[in-house]
Task: structure prediction
Amino acid sequence: MSQNFLKVKRKLIADMVNTPFHTQKSWCDIMLKAANRCTSDEDQKDFFRFILNPNDSWDVQEPTFMEVTPGKDIILNSTDTITVVEEEEEKQSTETITVKNSIHTNGNTTYITVTPT
Result:
């Protein structure tokens, strides 16, 4: 384990112990902070090895790591049209609706809100 990961691990454990009570948000914050502090691929691998097997048990299988190649970017238009088809017992109707896409990115998560115009 690298010196950086050992430091990350000490801080991760201290954050867990020093939090008086845990919620989903507190666990998430602690994990995301620790993952963000892992600066190399080896640090990241050591982080997941530790999270999956904190007691270094022989009974836990070693995780398999792989590299993922990012796909092409997807371009979203600020407005788009959607065709809605309604089928009732004996009739069918089609309507085209124009929608507005509001795109907001926070960290590595992108939120898209679609509203009719």
